[in-house]
Amino acid sequence: MSKPVTTTPNPAATPKQERLNAVMRWVLRSPLHRVVSGKLLIVTVVGRRTGRVYDNPVAYVEHEGTLLIGTAAKWRRNLKPDEPVRITLRRRVIEADWAVITDVDEAAELYRVILTHNPTHGKYAGISLNSDGSVNREELAAAFAKGTAVVRLWPLF
Prior knowledge:
alpha+beta
């Protein structure tokens, strides 16, 4: 993979969100990364049609040697089959194999893990945990119907 020269702003992000993303990209690449790098990483994708480089700060959860990202963002559509994705994890730029999981049954346990470690994500995604700790299937199905998915990464250290 070639190294990106510049990061293109996300056209779907609000100006406020793009400013926050720019700050997070800077922090995650700086010596200050420890403040947020336990919960955030950068996924770098190249636009399929535009060829532009997009560096997306995203929340993640570590689980069984993988990184889980629950997202409705469209950056995942730029992941290329059979090609690792570049991530910045704890200030290290590495590649990772990936899978996008859009099946509600397959994603239910993964989303339970995400919400257990990052309850705030559930507020934005509209997905909660039931009193027994299981993911609310109706909310999960509704979020997936609107484009939410789980991206699972296997870092290639």
